[in-house]
Write a structure and sequence with these properties.
- The structure is a single chain.
- The protein starts with a strand and ends with a strand.
- It has one domain: 3-Layer(aba) Sandwich (Aminopeptidase), CATH 3.40.630.
- It is an alpha+beta fold.
- It is globular and about 40 Å long.
- The relative contact order is 0.15.
- Helices cover about 30% and strands about 35% of the residues.
- Strands 1-2-3-4-5-7-6 form a seven-stranded mixed beta sheet.
Length: about 160
């Protein structure tokens, strides 16, 4: 597997990962009616942000976007989001994408990375981020409407560099 910069011709494969994740409403706070066009604008970061794909045997199996978490006085902290194709989960794709994002953020001179809305029931993501050095710095109770579990918390997770 190789991680490389996203190019526009990757979008169809990236959308095939993003769309079912968004429609499932289990892990991301995105509107489940998101269109491919609006999804492109939401997922593909303009510079100085960055969007990447994880490619295995010529197929996009995961994607990540990263950039500044907040402008102005908060611009020293980065953020990132990750999605992995269902049939590629559990194979280290998310871990590789997270490591890549952390490495990028350090090279860019950020002071840390913050995740603003990690669904607390998304155990795979929470565990991955903890293994990568993030801590839960707070949880907003009931801030996410899970389709089967009802209202669950959203974690704010942080790693200082």
């Amino acid at each position: 597997m190789r991680i490389r910069e996203f190019v526009a011709r990757d979008w169809d494969q990236v959308w095939s990962i993003v769309e079912p994740v968004v429609r499932a409403r289990e892990t991301f706070t995105y509107d489940p009616a998101l269109t491919a066009e609006a999804g492109y604008d939401l997922w593909v970061e303009a510079p100085p942000g960055r969007t990447v794909v994880a490619v295995d045997d010529g197929r996009v199996v995961g994607t990540a976007k990263m950039g500044t978490n907040r402008p102005g006085p908060g611009s020293h902290v980065s953020t990132a989001s990750f999605m992995v194709a269902p049939d590629a989960r559990g194979r280290g794709v998310g871990t590789a994408l997270c490591r890549d994002a952390l490495s990028w953020a350090r090279r860019q001179g950020y002071a840390g990375m913050q995740f603003n809305a990690v669904v607390e029931t998304n155990r795979a993501a929470v565990d991955l981020y903890r293994r990568a050095g993030f801590t839960v710095v707070g949880t907003v109770p009931g801030a996410f409407r899970h389709p089967t579990l009802g209202r669950v918390g959203l974690h704010v997770m942080y790693q200082e560099f």
